[in-house]
Every structure is written in C-alpha cells, then in structure tokens.
Amino acid sequence: MVYLTGAGPGDKDLLTIKALKVIQKADVIIYDRLANPDILEEAKENTELIFVGKEKGNHRVPQDEINEIIYQCSLKYKTVVRLKGGDPFVFGRGGEEALYLKQRGVKFEIIPGITSSISVPAYAGIPVTHRGITPSFRVVTGHRKSSDNIADINWNSFIEDETIVFLMGLHNIELIVTNLLKIGKDENYPCAIICNGTTKKQKVIVGTLKDIVEKSKEAVSPAIIIVGEVVNLRDELKWFD
Ligand code: SAH
After folding, report:
1. Which one of 12, 76, 147, 191 is least enclosed by Cβ atoms within 10 Å?
2. What is the pTM assigned to this prediction?
3. Which of 224, 227, 240 most suits a substitution to test ligand 1, by most atoms within 8 Å of the C-beta?
C-alpha cells in the first residue's frame, strides 16, 4: 500500500493523526524538502528514508523519476509513505503520482494534509475569508510559464474582493503585481508575503501592491503571497509572532 500523505505546512503538530499512524508503521518514507524533517523522527528505527526534495535551480529528482521510485518501493515494501509538504493534491503533484501507481495496479490511499495556502495565512493572523470582506478565496500558482504569463492564469477571471493566495510566486512577484494592477486593482490594495509560515522562522511582510515588490527583497522561500482586504485583519488578529 502506498500512502500519498500530506505533512502539513511546517509546524510538526499540524500533522494529522492518520498521517502520524502510517508514518509510524512505514517501511519506507519518500519525502520532500517542504515536509518538516522532524516528522521523520516518528518513523521506526529501520525505516528507509529517501529524500527526493527539489530546490529552485537545483532539480535533484525529476517528477517522472519520483513516480518510478515510489513504484519500485511498492514492489519491495509492504507500507510505503510518500510524504509531501502541505496537502498532496494542492500543487503537490500527488495526482500524477496516484495516476502512475493506478496504471501499474498499485493500491494507494490519499491522506490529505493541512495546506499552506490557508494555514500559513492563519498563523499570520489573516483569515482567507471574512464575512463582509471577501466572498471567496482562490489559490493560484505563481510559477511562471512564459516570459509574460504565469501558468495558465486568466487574470480577468478574478472576482472583485476575492482573496488571492499565490503559491510558488515569490520569484515572479513583479509579474504578479503588474497583472493585478492591469486588471484594475488599486495600488494601495493590501497584500502580504509570509515566509516559512507556521515555523519558528516565520516572517511576515505586509505592504500594498505599490511597495510589495520592493519589500519582497527581505523575503525568503518558501513563501506565499496573499492579496486582499483580509490582510488588514492581521493588525488585530496576529497571534503567532
Ligand atoms: N502541497 C503544498 C504546496 C506545494 S507548492 C501545500 O498544500 O501547502 C510549494 C509552495 O507552497 C511554496 O512555493 C510556497 O508558496 C508554499 N509553502 C509551502 N509551505 C510553506 C510555508 N511553510 N510557508 C510559506 N509558504 C509555504
């Protein structure tokens, strides 16, 4: 059995009980850079640990190789845990890994994790929705596809007052801001960058569309960018700092 498991956003205690149970019985754990390594201490002493983390500009293991590693482990071991940062199905490529296993007749289960897209703002005192302020929130990839666009984002599809959370967007923050201004967002619209959220290294940078690019020089990865009036609630609701 392969468990495609969410590790949560960083704070080890945000692991689910179900994830903890499979980690404790795993014969092998294949884990990512964003999965908190302290979680691995919960594994049995003889559990094989395989790191397949990726870092920008230093692509250690391509996705198709990761798929194959998981598959090979499933032939060799009874309990395989594939541990991924946040939730496996939120920009985690968990769907691709599940399909690869399915096509080879390998049994799998998905163990959802607490995604960074909502929990990192929560630790910064920013609710992704708030009655009377925002009708919806959207989680968007900030990963660049071409020189002038990000993934397949249709910028005109954004709803007014919607909270927008960008994952993987720090390196493209200038392009993100340019596009948001282009669709009519005010340059004083609030936004924040939250780095290493839910961990002791958490850093929150608050700004507006006008100054966030300049302020982003102080930011480090991993980081999410959150755009919306809900950012202003941080003044009252910040608790973790
Ligand atoms: N599956 C993950 C997301 C993977 S994409 C999830 O559900 O959370 C990787 C991106 O997630 C990073 O580029 C960053 O934008 C975000 N991220 C993950 N952990 C984070 C953290 N602790 N603090 C800030 N951003 C984080």
Report:
1. 147
2. 0.95
3. 224
Q: Where are the domains of the chain?
A: 2-111, 116-237
Q: Do residues 146 and 186 make contact, with C-beta atoms less than 8 angstroms apart?
A: no
- Ligand 1 and 11: CB distance under 6 A: no
At 158, is the secondary structure helix, strand, or coil? Answer: coil
Check if 2-111 and 116-237 are the same fold.
no
Q: What is the pLDDT of residues 8-51, one digit of tens each?
A: 999 999 999 999 999 999 999 999 988 898 999 999 999 999 99
Q: Which atom of ligand 1 is nearest to the CA of 198?
A: 22
Tell me the mean pLDDT in the region 162-175. Answer: 96
Q: What is the whole-number distance in angstroms between the Cα of residue 105 and the centre of ligand 1?
A: 30
CA-CA distance, 166 to 130, in Å (whole number)? 18
Active site residues: 32, 54, 168
Q: Which ligand 1 atom is the nearest neighbour of the CA of 92?
A: 1
How many helices, marked H, and strands, marked E, lie in the chain?
7, 10
**pLDDT for res 149:** 75
**Does 182 have pLDDT greater than 60?**
yes
Q: Measured between alpha carbons, how far is 2 from 77 in angstroms, rounded to an integer?
A: 9
> 208 has which bridge partners?
190
Reported as a pLDDT band with limits 50, 70 and 90, residue 54 is low
Q: What is the CATH number of domain 116-237?
A: 3.30.950.10
Residue 56 has pLDDT above 60, yes or no: no
